[in-house]
Specification:
The chain has a four-stranded antiparallel sheet, with helices on both faces. Helix 2 packs antiparallel against helix 4. The chain has one domain: NADH Oxidase (3-Layer(aba) Sandwich), CATH 3.40.109. It is built from five helices and four strands; from the N terminus they run ααβαβαβαβ. Bound molecules: flavin mononucleotide.
Length: 169
């Protein structure tokens, strides 16, 4: 795991190369192994590989989502807010597991924040994503994780760059 963390960066440029089924299956298995409060598992995932749908999802926000268009896979992380008061935490852990598993498979990825973001002046990013994918309440949309083969494998953060001051005790 530490080796995976040493390599991890947010990757936003991908090769035009589809993922193989074994990679998709590994990502699905990993995310279903996520911990959740009281083992409620309020999360639901949509693995989107359709290029047309991914292109629509790339417009979910005014900024910070357009790179999705070049990704062969978008994992939409949703949570059932009627099942758990900590669905946000559970879903954030699951989204990170998608990201880290991608890195461990030699792939790359990046989180696209959806919850509390706007598509335009009138429409939230959540409403927009709901419309694209037909997701209804009580499901909420937390984030989308883009996954693909990195255009250029990123270098992880150098150990000297880590801010040791964040560890306050
Ligand atoms: C909660 C969260 C939301 C994020 N939202 C976005 C986003 O909407 N668009 C984006 O391009 N990157 C997003 N990121 C990625 C961050 O920008 C990235 O992690 C940060 O710049 C540090 O870079 P690194 O991941 O390469 O270490 C998000 C990351 C987190 C954890």
């Amino acid at each position: 795991m530490l080796e995976t963390l040493r390599k991890r960066r947010s990757v936003r440029r991908f090769k035009q190369q589809p993922l193989v089924q074994e990679q998709i299956d590994a990502l699905k298995e990993a995310v279903l192994r996520s911990p959740s409060s009281r083992a409620i598992q309020p999360w639901r995932f949509t693995f989107v590989q359709d290029a047309g749908l991914i292109a629509k999802l790339a417009h979910c926000k005014e900024h910070g989502s357009s790179f999705l268009e070049g990704a062969p896979l978008a994992v939409v992380v949703c949570g059932d807010e009627s099942l758990s008061d900590v669905w946000v935490e559970d879903c954030a852990i699951a989204a990170l597991i998608v990201h880290l598993t991608a890195v461990s498979l030699g792939l790359g990825g990046c989180w696209v924040q959806v919850r509390k973001r706007m598509h335009d002046a009138q429409t939230t990013s959540e409403e927009y994503v709901r419309g694209v994918l037909g997701i209804s309440p009580p499901l909420r949309v937390l984030a989308i994780v883009a996954v693909g083969v990195p255009d250029r494998p990123p270098a992880g953060h150098p150990v000297e760059s880590l801010d040791r001051g964040k560890i306050i005790g």
